[in-house]
């Protein structure tokens, strides 16, 4: 589809308040009844906004984060939905006190509370605030905690505001969430590829990003991108579990920028999320050390290890040969192979790619064919995925391999238009997201179209791109819900292999 191009151009001090001390031990911090709510009643100004459901440390936890107009005591109330009385929270509703902190930028406060001891296969209703000043009631549900099968969804660079039109970017973002979760309402996690917004501290962009109610119904596993890192709003909006905020995990000043590496377990998967903005001055080695420690201390009993960060190292488009990515391509892959990482989820390049099995930075099996529907991961085999734009705010076109830029990132002998590492590279200028089905020893990765060339598709609507559809627009756009790419990954589940790899990695790091 050819498009009519260019018709439109868009124009303190840190203060801990409330009940931090009692919120620290979350299992013990839940209180019953109305005592706390009564204590908080004096403040009717603490209007909660920007409420977002986040991941906890495991499948029995969720974290609720929000902004507040006041710094006084606030809580999350939660009850099994079946216990609501004519839509009202009963007297014995469980209450989790929040930690409320003064924002470092943009004024106001941010709060969060960790909800723990959730039961499996249960629908919950919750609200945020104080007596007399409650948020609307939201709901989420848990599923079977012991099952080895579950779905999660991965979203690349919503980057709200990137097109120059925040409303259009937000409309595409909301539509992708609605489409994805209508197609797969049983999904249990929404995983971020980073770049939630275009400009780190611009709250109108955060408002649009957080507008979809789906972000209050399914837990968001936040990832920091290069557009989020330059301010404190990212950390104010998202509280994440098991987070190491020491200096190596920031790209510069921790007082003015966001950062941190974190991990969580969800059923049989260990997720490790790192701040890839920090890469220079030994930060890559620090990330590897963090990942190594998490795998060593948390890897027992999990079937799969999924790594998430923003800057795709095998990106297929504009960022393919960025200097920082050339460095990460050297720094990361061997360590990931030795640590038994199964799947790496990345963003930044606003285009889709799925790698071949990569072992120690090289194609594991030279005979693996482009677009193979099924791959068998031996020890050290890692699949790297790059997500396209989930919002339609910006797309990058695929680029040809260029060994003058990076002699180590040349063409695929089996498909010379493509970079050697990638089995599939795709850009159609339509919104997509990645669905991952965890199925026992398999991970099924599928890139799915959540939009067409029609609105909402900000980059197309605003004339940022000149064509739309497969084959550079030569083919009609495919329908919403159709598959761009799908692969069944048979993961390497020999614990002995992984343990040996981890031990080798630990030795290698010394
Ligand atoms: Fe981005």
What do these coordinates show?
- The protein is an alpha+beta fold and 510 residues long.
- It folds into two domains: 16-141, Purple acid phosphatase-like, N-terminal (Immunoglobulin-like, Sandwich); 149-509, 4-Layer Sandwich (Purple Acid Phosphatase, chain A, domain 2).
- The protein has eleven helices and 29 strands.
- The chain has a seven-stranded mixed beta sheet, with no helix packed on it. A seven-stranded mixed beta sheet has the order 15-16-17-18-23-19-26, covered by helices on one side.
- β3 and β4 form a beta hairpin.
- α4 (166-183) runs parallel beside α5 and α7 runs antiparallel to α11 (495-509).
- The longest helix is centred in the middle third of the chain and has 18 residues, at 166-183.
- Residues 157, 159, 195, 225, 227, 348, 350 line the site of fe (ii) ion.
Euclidean distance between termini CA atoms:
55 Å
Overall number of strands: 29
Specify the number of helices.
11
Radius of gyration: 22 Å
The backbone outline, from C-alpha atoms, is globular
User: What's the structural domain tally?
Assistant: 2
CATH class of the largest domain: Alpha Beta
Largest sheet: 7 strands, mixed
Poorly predicted residue ranges: 4-44, 495-510
Name of the CATH homologous superfamily of the largest domain: Metallo-dependent phosphatases
Strand content: 25-35%
Q: Give the bound compounds.
A: fe (ii) ion
Helix content: 10-25%
How confident overall, as mean pLDDT? Answer: 90
The name of the CATH architecture of the largest domain is 4-Layer Sandwich
Could you name the CATH topology of the largest domain?
Answer: Purple Acid Phosphatase, chain A, domain 2
Biggest sheet strand order reads: 14-13-12-27-28-29-22
């Amino acid at each position: 589809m050819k498009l009519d191009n260019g018709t439109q151009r868009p124009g303190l001090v840190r203060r801990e308040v409330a009940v931090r001390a009692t919120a620290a031990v979350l299992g013990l911090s839940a209180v019953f009844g109305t005592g706390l709510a009564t204590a908080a009643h004096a403040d009717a100004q603490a209007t909660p906004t920007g409420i977002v459901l986040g991941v906890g440390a495991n499948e029995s936890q969720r974290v609720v984060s929000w902004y507040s107009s006041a710094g006084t005591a606030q809580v999350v109330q939660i009850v099994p939905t079946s216990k609501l009385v004519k839509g009202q929270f009963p007297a014995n509703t469980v209450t989790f006190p929040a930690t409320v902190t003064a924002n470092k930028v943009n004024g106001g406060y941010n709060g969060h509370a960790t909800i723990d001891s959730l039961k499996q296969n249960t629908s919950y209703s919750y609200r945020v605030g104080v007596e007399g000043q409650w948020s609307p009631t939201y709901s989420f549900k848990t599923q079977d905690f012991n099952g080895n099968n579950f779905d999660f969804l991965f979203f690349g660079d919503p980057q709200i505001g990137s097109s120059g039109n925040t409303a259009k970017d937000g409309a595409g973002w909301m539509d992708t969430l609605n489409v994805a979760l209508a197609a797969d309402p049983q999904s249990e996690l929404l995983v971020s590829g980073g770049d939630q917004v275009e400009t780190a501290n611009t709250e109108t962009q955060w408002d649009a990003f957080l507008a979809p109610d789906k972000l209050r119904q399914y837990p968001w596993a936040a990832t920091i991108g290069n557009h989020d890192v330059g301010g404190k709003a990212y950390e104010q909006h998202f509280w994440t579990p098991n987070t190491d905020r020491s200096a190596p995990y920031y790209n510069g000043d921790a007082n003015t920028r966001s950062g941190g590496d974190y991990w969580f377990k969800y059923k049989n998967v260990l997720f490790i999320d790192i701040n890839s903005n920090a890469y220079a001055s030994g930060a890559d080695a620090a990330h590897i050390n963090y990942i190594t420690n998490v795998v060593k201390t948390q890897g027992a009993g999990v079937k799969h290890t999924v790594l998430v960060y923003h800057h795709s190292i095998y990106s297929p488009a504009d960022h393919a040969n960025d200097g920082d990515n050339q460095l990460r391509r050297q720094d990361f892959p061997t360590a990931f192979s030795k640590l038994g990482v199964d799947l790496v989820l990345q963003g930044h390049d606003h285009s889709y790619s799925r790698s071949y099995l990569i072992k120690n930075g090289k194609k594991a099996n030279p005979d693996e064919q482009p677009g193979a529907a099924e791959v068998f991961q031996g020890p050290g085999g890692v699949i790297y995925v790059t997500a396209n734009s989930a919002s339609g705010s910006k797309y990058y076109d695929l680029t040809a391999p260029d060994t003058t830029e990076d002699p180590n990132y040349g063409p695929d002998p089996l498909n010379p238009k493509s970079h050697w590492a990638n089995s599939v590279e795709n850009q159609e200028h339509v919104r997509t997201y990645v669905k991952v089905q965890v199925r026992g020893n398999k991970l099924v990765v599928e890139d799915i179209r959540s939009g067409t060339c029609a609105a909402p598709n900000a980059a197309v609507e605003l004339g940022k791109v000149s064509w739309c559809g497969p084959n550079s627009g030569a083919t009609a756009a495919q329908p919403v819900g159709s598959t761009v790419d799908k692969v069944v990954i048979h993961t390497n589940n020999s614990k002995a292999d992984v343990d040996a790899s981890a031990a080798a990695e630990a030795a290698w790091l010394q």
